[in-house]
């Protein structure tokens, strides 16, 4: 039985009373590779995010005071996002080969000691269906093997976007993200909806996969709007007046994605001796 100082305040989906106890695991984020806290319960995968833990706060729980004043949000996480980078690495694709097929046990059995909890993904419900959605499958009487298929991944991602676009109006946070388009033509609003969902889905992808996905979408009306509302820069003024204010063009600043509080703390930890993500799945000798 947990002592009072071991308790945490969590908000998460309702689970059946007979469900197994949750298992907290540390897995690499599918977008950044940084250590991220997940929960496995009743065959489902959930992401845990810590909210507002930097202040001096505490919780009153019944007759006790919990010193950890953080709030933990536990939300369902689609395992396919986790599978994409794992399978991408495991297939060992080259310029002359599409890579190798692997059995279910081989996909998770070659994980390095840095993330042993990755093996637990094999026990998730519907894992075979998740793999089949994004992989070429060879099914014989002797064995069933899988290999990531880029086209299937893109079809799955675009379908995910279509589903969210269809549900956009029922998700307040998404509606708020395009509040600036309320007075704009319907064509602009339609593109803004798709663009907002595209950004949301891309948060769970590596830079390379996010770039591939983005290449499938064009937003001409939003591009026109941006070009019409963009104010001239000082360098443009200088060129029109005969004065070149920029001796050398400056590289466009790329904003880094924001990390959660938990990721910031883990990022500060010592990485001495840690292996790159591609080594997680290297064959052990």
Automatic annotation (TrEMBL):
Which ranges form a coiled coil? none
The ranges of region (Disordered) come to 230-271
Residue ranges constituting the Ribonuclease H2 subunit B wHTH domain according to the UniProt record: 81-182
What Gene Ontology biological process does one annotation of this record name? RNA catabolic process
Biased region (Basic and acidic residues) positions are: 237-256
Task: Please give the GO cellular component terms listed in this UniProt entry.
Answer: nucleoplasm; ribonuclease H2 complex
Q: Where is the protein found, in the record's own terms?
A: Nucleus
All copies of domain Rnh202 triple barrel, residue ranges: 23-78
**What keywords were assigned to this record?**
Nucleus
Q: Which PANTHER family match?
A: RIBONUCLEASE H2 SUBUNIT B
Query: What is this protein identified as?
Result: Ribonuclease H2 subunit B
The uppermost taxa in this organism's lineage are: Eukaryota, Fungi, Fungi incertae sedis, Mucoromycota, Mortierellomycotina
